[in-house]
Specification:
With 489 residues, the chain is α/β, with parallel strands linked by helices. It has 15 helices and 19 strands. It has a seven-stranded mixed beta sheet. It has a five-stranded parallel beta sheet with strand order 9-2-1-13-19, with helices on one face. The protein has a three-stranded antiparallel beta sheet with strand order 10-11-12, with no helix packed on it. The protein is globular.
């Protein structure tokens, strides 16, 4: 008789856990509280023809995503077309622009032109980062992290000193580069890891390799195509999906999770994997005596940022705008301090604009643009329409200046904002977080919230609040780890 497993949530980690669990021979049911697939990576289409990805927009570490499909005898190209972006993105500084080319040799030339000797230093940096990427993404992040003993192998011990776990990213970058623009460029990827570069281990230079060296890509049709492809894999494995299915309780009997209460109906299972927000799962779905962590635990944790997002449909083409544009006219250290230390709305914000219609004609009507504006902000701060609109006007003003465009507001035919209160409402996100827990040294590996419930033998957690951490590739890996652990028990 097949083992019957429930998956709560249909984001990247939930889809991954579902597909792998079914491949292992289990009967799998996925329960999604929203009406559509994808969790934070959902998509929506407007009546006037715009299609918006709601979450991820950077396709980095393509090999890790490809590994998922390979595990099921398929390729990503069986489901969607992946195209390289060139430039990968553009950075707007107070004194000019920097476009990051797709070609690595062209990138070396850019570095050399910006700072004498930086081209060779980039080679050195990337060689080190490649080692961390290959060891980190294959040997470190695939562990369930139930014990430090998992990391006791000759290969891992040999590599430990080269992984720079005790060096901070801020100082590590400055060992190679001194020009402010190059420093900002190299530090940018760790912003969403949840702490200032000075508090992030230098291990995460692997992100620079996984992004800049392996390239920035885009799946035609948007990130929802990746979600739909993973769902198709899961369905082919026999997974059953339930939408508008709000899980209200995990029912425990004899210290085992034996049922879920879904929209008032009790449904029995042999194991449960929660891809839902970890804190919500414990505080709202579990009786107090079965929780791994109390409220004090979560209050003391360092969270990655939340964000203010605007989805905009523009009824004309915008010149001088790339697919990805980072607005870094202001100080990175100030913005990160106000996110992580001061916990307030930023005084001089940085922000990001994604314009997928520059690459993909499917996401906007003809001669129109699809814009996604994102500003990282602190978790837990007060969200209001007034604050949203204040920053919207600032971002639009800076976008107009960059593109030499006037009166963009009059050309908006669709506008929707998304912020802390929405993350709480739609995803039960603790303090309105958008990206999970920060990858600080004190919140790495075994020091992250446990993948296993310590009091209920057949309850497991997956996603960005447990191992290996936030981001699309780590979430996919997290689902696989959870599926393997659930299968063992």
């Amino acid at each position: 008789m097949k083992k019957k497993i429930a998956i709560i949530g249909s984001g990247f980690s939930g889809l991954s856990a579902a597909a792998y669990s079914s491949k292992l021979g289990c009967e799998v049911h996925v329960f999604e509280k929203n009406s559509s697939i994808g969790g934070r990576a959902r998509s929506f289409r407007t009546e006037n023809g715009y299609t918006f990805d709601m979450g991820p927009s950077w396709y980095w570490m393509p090999d890790i995503i490809e590994n998922f499909f390979n595990d099921f005898g398929r390729k990503a190209s069986d489901f969607y077309q992946l195209v390289p972006l060139d430039p990968q993105f553009e950075m707007v500084f107070s004194d000019g622009l920097m476009a990051i080319p797709q070609d690595y040799q062209a990138m070396k030339t850019l570095f050399e032109e910006t700072e004498k000797g930086a081209g060779k230093k980039l080679d050195d940096f990337m060689k080190d980062a490649q080692f961390k990427y290959e060891v980190g993404m294959k040997d470190y992040v695939t562990k369930p992290c139930n014990s430090w003993l998992e990391f006791v192998s000759l290969k891992i011990l040999k590599s430990a000193f080269s992984m720079d776990l005790l060096t901070d990213f801020h100082n590590f970058v400055r060992k190679y580069f001194s020009h402010p623009k190059l420093i900002t460029l190299m530090e940018f990827p760790v912003i969403f890891l949840g702490a200032a570069p000075k508090d992030i281990p230098a291990l995460y230079s692997l992100m620079n390799y996984g992004g800049y060296k392996l390239g920035t890509w885009y799946p035609i049709g948007g990130f929802i195509k990746v979600i739909e492809a993973m769902q198709e894999i899961a369905v082919q494995q026999g997974v059953v999906f339930h939408f508008n299915a709000n899980v209200e309780q995990i029912i425990i009997k004899d210290k085992k999770a034996n049922a879920l209460l879904v929209n008032g109906e009790k449904i029995e299972f042999d194991s449960v994997i929660a891809s839902s927000d970890y804190e919500h799962t414990e505080s709202k779905l579990l009786a107090k005596e079965y929780r791994n962590y109390d409220e004090d635990y979560w209050e003391k944790k360092t969270f990655a940022p939340s964000c203010l997002i605007f989805y905009l449909g523009i009824k004309e083409k915008i010149q001088n705008l790339k697919h990805h544009t980072l607005f870094f006219e202001n100080d990175l250290d100030l913005h990160t301090t106000e996110i992580y230390n001061d916990k307030k709305w930023p005084s001089k914000p940085l922000f990001y604009v994604c314009c997928p219609s520059k690459t993909d004609q499917n996401v906007a009507p003809e001669n129109c643009e699809n814009l996604f504006l994102l500003m990282p902000i602190a978790t837990g701060i007060e969200d209001s329409e007034q604050e949203r609109e204040r920053y919207f006007l600032e971002m639009i003003s800076r976008l107009e200046k960059h593109t030499n465009t006037s009166d963009l507001i009059s050309k908006i035919e669709y506008k929707r904002s998304y912020c802390i209160d929405d993350f709480k409402q739609d995803y039960n996100a603790y303090a309105g977080n958008a990206y999970g827990l920060a990858n600080t040294l004190s919140q790495t590996a075994v020091l992250k919230p446990s993948l296993k419930n310590k009091k209920v033998k057949n309850l497991f957690y997956t996603g960005q609040l447990t191992v290996p951490g936030p981001g699309v590739p780590p979430s996919i890996i997290s689902g696989k780890i959870a599926a393997l652990e659930a299968h063992k028990n």
